[in-house]
Amino acid sequence: MPHLFYGTPRNGEIVFDEREAHHMRVVRLKEGETVETTDGEGFSYTCVLTRLKKSEAVAKILKIEKKEEEPSEKLKVVVPIGRWERTRLLIEKCVELGADEILLYRFERSQHSVSLEKSLLVVREAAKQCRRYLFPKVKMVENLDFDEKAITLDPDGSVNLLEMDVSGSITIVVGPEGGFSEREKELLKQRTILVNLGRKILRFETAAILTVGYIALRKQKI
Amino acid sequence: MPHLFYGTPRNGEIVFDEREAHHMRVVRLKEGETVETTDGEGFSYTCVLTRLKKSEAVAKILKIEKKEEEPSEKLKVVVPIGRWERTRLLIEKCVELGADEILLYRFERSQHSVSLEKSLLVVREAAKQCRRYLFPKVKMVENLDFDEKAITLDPDGSVNLLEMDVSGSITIVVGPEGGFSEREKELLKQRTILVNLGRKILRFETAAILTVGYIALRKQKI
Lengths: 222, 222
Known about the structure:
Distance between the termini of chain A: 18 Å
Low-confidence stretches of chain A: none
Radius of gyration of chain A: 19 Å
Strand order of the largest sheet of chain A: 9-8-7-12-10-13-11
Number of strands of chain A: 13
CATH topology of the largest domain in chain A: Alpha/beta knot
Largest sheet of chain A: 7 strands, parallel
Strand content of chain A: 25-35%
Mean pLDDT of chain A: 94
Largest interface: A-B, 30 and 30 residues
Structural class of chain A: alpha/beta
Oligomer: homodimer
């Protein structure tokens, strides 16, 4: 399968940044070759590479095609801001598993911070890899407020994942490495549905992958 | 939740190896304290630590309890022998997600090898972590022969994971990093059910976690 690149359309051309130009050189693309590009907004551009330099590249657009529409029912995931490697992995898996929005939240027990810019680059790389034309939105959020249905994974939750009603937009809250604080637990109990994944203890990333993937499958997002 | 240790019962005592003795020292256990131990065969032993040395430990058994029975319907996973980090991760996730047997297989495109002993230690650590009293069996297998229902993850598979019949024992074939060879593909097409996980491209470990976890949930193994 040919590579998918990310670029910005401008006057009949696509402009690629240094990172994409680097990716092109790694896969040994040459000027004059045809490349497929997305703008991350749902469009695919078939274009011919006219200029490939170290810090940028440009291609002429031959064909534009709408590949993905903004979904009416959204799958959002609250990803904890924790150690970067862990946060990075979760962002990557959310992209791969069809999440529409990634909400970065700093739980009370987390001493870490995260760069929005770095997170956006992870989304870009993961989306290119699994050919998502409409990139998930990434936001920092300050509160655990939810407009629609939200669930929290909890071994004591009364609803089993398999029996969960997946209609409408859903937000999945993934807990931080050190667990929720008492205050957060209370708040999530009031504002979200506590969902269990059986009786065994799963590591958080395993539980998160299973839940996001299962709901995405049910909602036909993957 | 208190720690679970692994040891071998012998004449009313439990004998622990160097690895377990090390784990005990790490969590600052002292002689005279009560510890919970499993033999990996489904039993829990409540015992009191009588001797904690660098290379071994011994505890006196106070109570024995059968915690897990050999299941009649088994969940088996063919894990590819590949780069150790990747194979290790898959073994760990299979334990966590309730697999009953882990079948290590070297696919044609793999140049790697694996130590059965190292694999058994990964199973032990993962099982202790998620409190499995009946450890999954680990075997090296030489052929892709299956007595019961077997599935292979394939984007072109005609059955969607959610619609799959999960009754009876099931073997899940997880592909190697470099993909199946043509011969293996043909063989798996004949001998297994090709199952898809939607239309998007998932990384192999993501697909494997989602599939093992989903079937384990449906079969109430987790």
